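Lecture 7 notes: from sequence to structure.

We start with a single chain of 330 residues. Read the sequence below before looking at the structure.
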Amino acid sequence: MRTKSLLLSISVVLLTTSACIKDYSPAAQKHTPVDIYTAGFTTASNGNLVATYWKNGKATKVGDSSVNSVAYSIAVSGGDVYMAGYTRAIPGNQTASYWKNGNLIKLGDANAVTRAYSITVSAGDVYVAGTIGNIGPKAMYWKNGVPIVLGDNSSFSGADAIAVKGSNVYVAGYSNNNYATFWKNGKDTVLNANDIGDAADIALYGNDVFVTGFVGSTGGAMYWKNGLPVSLPEDGAPLVANSIVVNNTGLYIGGNNNGQYGVYWRNGVLNKLAPGTLVYDIAADEYDIYLAGADADASTGANDAVYWKNGKEIKLSKNAEAHSIAVVPK
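Now the structure, written as tokens:
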């Protein structure tokens, strides 16, 4: 979601990813109170998926149970809660959509398959990244509902994540039929043209651009700092990286072992979660690490939506998944 393309001392590289790496000692620190938002879906009694977010563990369903809906991304800005994903009537196509405080805004229409995977808000403008098309998809993003296509008709492409700084718009995904790529203001940079891969998430810190994902058909978790690749420790497993956050305490990356168990890296150190877990997103404040995902429930045979704080699992809802997490100071 692998060939290691750069053999560097991970400890040296990772310690240069931020201006200052603080000693991680949660018990000794005074924490700023935060609200924890997670987004994903719950399952209605009729079997339909319902876009849902949880604030500090309390669920709010924003989807209509008469159709399918899923939220893949959440952002909180100025007290407003934004979620991006899709809605789908059956029969019918998936339609890229976002919600603002529970109000649905459809970005696509019923004539084409569209999906929204990432949302961010900058200077009052709403940016959403996703894809259009099912066979031969193309990467795109929307700014305040206006579509901007990044991919061309000559190859497959997709947009997984979006970040904005000032007037610059950064999008991460894949192009040229599955090569890890990011775009800056519409100009693409292929991160590895030697093997298939995906740039699953992007983070901006200072003047640096961090992208994480994988390269290779069987695993190869890595990240790129300003286009330079750094392979992540995998402990002999086919790991993929799918989410990244950078702050003044370091660099944090979430991922999975091919559906077997979730993982995360803190400044290059690999941490494994329990078997049956999935990690979809990562967030961090000054001293705490948060993950959003799912945990297989043996009693139901389905997944439970969960999040983790410093490795401790907190259950949210049964028959559900959490795909995104945001941590906001109170």
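The two ends are 34 Å apart (CA to CA). Keep this in mind for problem set 3.
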